[in-house]
Q: What sequence folds into this?
């Protein structure tokens, strides 16, 4: 495994991908056994990464560019021989090596942004499943053979998968059952009262004309008597929030409803959410749908918040497209904990007409689009500066990876990056820090915004056993 610092050479990655049933025959989430795995799962399909072939960390305003440089160097040889499409219609994906990634929200965050290249990736999509084995040809275990022309083989990939699964089972058995007792929820760096005060100050800036929208977040801490059951948390999220993207990368876990950008060949897609209504205590069935429509689609405050989020994404995406579709009317997305106003955006990318992409890939577009108004505000630079003042300077809360891009990418520019929402950072074996934020506009009420953050923490609180 490699974890290069600045100036260190990138690994020389090679991979082999072949059709294979998901080990054990169950859902992908059943492969999550130790909490160290990477994951990207929606409606039961997606990707799970086991082991680590290579790892790269970086910080600062250059973090996206540094990651792109490292990834381009690491995949140069493999990417030259593979087509653009991630999942062709006639079999498993013929892709160059794949990495999972998570990036810090802010340019000045001291928290590492990370790319993780798993040794083995198990994937499934539309009734097909496959296995990819990824190695660093310069690693001590492979360098001598690679110098003689060796490349990964199917038989060796099967053996490596068996070894990793057996090791995971042993670790899980050694951990034993969790210690008895109930997890404890405590205030984070920003207390509920502190959050209400921050909203008041944010509204004051909006009323003064400094900006039109601001997204403010708060944190909370969960401590468990026994070791955190991270695999169990992820399995619960993937089952209860199937329409969301359940993710796990480097201690960041959650289930996001918002897709920042998905790139597959010449097509880019995004799902923008802004405007939220708690389902707790709301009517069910058709009455609930009508309730959501009245309080979201017909509410000027919610519509404004949503329109600003859509515009922030489409304006930044437009220069990289030859066609872009964003419906004028949002739809109401129904999730187990909340309703959202949502808009699905589809675009055809420039420079993606031939066998090789010449325009931006998923990671480059992620840098262009992040942060959107859905997690930052409008204008972006003004909102980001005010977030730093009201969250970091006033309360000592750095968002870290919360609300940053999280997902996966391959060496051909394909990938999916969601926004790290409805999640937590595993700080140690017994501690998880949860985050949630709300869009603030002139009509925002501090008590209502605080209640919305609680609703948005509910998926993680459910998965951790703190509420139904």
A:
């Amino acid at each position: 495994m490699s974890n290069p610092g600045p100036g260190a050479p990138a690994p020389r990655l090679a991979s082999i991908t072949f059709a294979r049933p998901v080990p054990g025959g169950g859902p992908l989430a059943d492969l999550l056994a130790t909490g160290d795995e990477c994951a990207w799962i929606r409606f039961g399909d997606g990707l799970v990464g086991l082991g680590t072939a290579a790892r790269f960390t970086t910080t600062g305003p250059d973090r996206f560019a540094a990651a792109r440089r490292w990834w381009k160097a690491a995949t140069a040889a493999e990417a030259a021989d593979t087509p653009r499409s991630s999942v062709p219609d006639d079999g498993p994906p013929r892709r160059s090596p794949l990495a999972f990634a998570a990036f810090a929200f802010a340019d000045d965050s001291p928290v590492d942004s990370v790319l993780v290249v798993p040794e083995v990736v198990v994937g499934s999509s539309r009734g097909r499943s496959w296995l990819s084995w990824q190695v660093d040809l310069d690693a001590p275990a492979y360098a001598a053979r690679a110098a003689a022309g060796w490349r990964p083989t199917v038989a060796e990939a099967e053996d490596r998968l068996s070894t990793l699964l057996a090791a995971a089972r042993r670790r899980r058995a050694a951990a034993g059952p969790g210690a008895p007792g109930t997890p404890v929820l405590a205030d984070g760096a920003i207390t509920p009262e502190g959050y209400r005060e921050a909203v008041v100050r944010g509204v004051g800036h909006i009323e003064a004309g400094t900006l039109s929208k601001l997204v403010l977040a708060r944190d909370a801490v969960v401590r468990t008597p026994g070791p955190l059951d991270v695999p169990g948390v992820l399995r619960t999220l993937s089952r209860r929030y199937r329409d969301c993207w359940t993710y796990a990368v480097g201690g960041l876990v959650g289930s996001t409803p918002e897709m920042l950008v998905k790139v597959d060949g010449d097509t880019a897609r995004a799902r923008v959410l802004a405007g939220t209504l708690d389902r707790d205590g709301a009517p069910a069935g058709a009455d609930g749908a009508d309730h959501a429509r009245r309080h979201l689609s017909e509410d000027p405050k919610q519509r404004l918040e949503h329109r600003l989020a859509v515009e922030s994404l489409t304006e930044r995406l437009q220069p990289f497209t030859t066609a872009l579709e964003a419906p004028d009317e949002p739809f109401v997305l129904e999730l187990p904990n909340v309703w959202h106003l949502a808009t699905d955006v589809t675009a055809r990318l420039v420079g993606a007409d031939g066998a090789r992409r010449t325009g931006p890939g998923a990671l480059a577009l992620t840098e262009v689009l992040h942060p959107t108004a859905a997690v930052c505000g409008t204008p972006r630079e003004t909102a980001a500066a005010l977030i730093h003042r009201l969250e970091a300077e006033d309360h000592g809360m750095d968002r870290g990876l919360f609300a940053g891009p999280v997902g996966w990418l391959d060496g051909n520019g394909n990938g999916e990056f969601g926004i790290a929402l409805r999640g937590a950072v595993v700080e140690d074996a017994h501690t998880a820090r949860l985050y949630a934020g709300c869009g603030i506009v002139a009509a925002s009420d501090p008590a209502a915004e605080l209640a919305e953050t609680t609703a948005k923490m509910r998926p993680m609180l459910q998965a951790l056993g703190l509420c139904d």
